[in-house]
Structures are given as structure tokens and as C-alpha cells.
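Contributing new records

If you add data, match the layout below exactly. Sequence lines come first and carry their own label; structure lines follow with theirs. Keep one chain per record. Anything else will be rejected by the validation script.
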Amino acid sequence: MKPEIAVTICQEPSGQLCRGTEAIGSSPYNVQLRIGCPPGTVVKALHHSHPGGLAKPSPADILEAKRLGLNHLCIENDFELRCYKV
């Protein structure tokens, strides 16, 4: 099974979205991401995978997004990508 991945989604002043820091977990069930964006951009959301699982945030995913003050969380599995307002 593939490892879990995570990406910070950032926004430029123009409104354009871009990638921030990325991380690859050591297993399909865990990934740790150091949140970071390019200079002049701000964090808007987190994206991460649930290999072999549901494209739905877990309670821990939602708590982490709220702890970071984020409004959106995008989760993908092997078949789809879904974004949620948290």
C-alpha cells in the first residue's frame, strides 16, 4: 500500500493557489507535515491522502485543521479527491 502524503495549499496575493511544504509518511496511516508556504503567500488549506481508505476527513484531521486555523481540508483516496469546509 502507498504511504500517506500531505501538502500545504497556499494562496498568493493575486488569489492564485500554489503548493507549500510536502511530506511523505512512513506508512499508509500516518504523515507529519511541517506547515510552510512560499514567501508572500498564506496557508489556505491542507491536502492529504488516505491510501486504501475513504476520501473523508477523520476526526483527527478535522481537529488538526481547526487547531491550525484552517477552513478547508482536502482528502484523496485511490479513486477521488474531495475538499471539505471544516
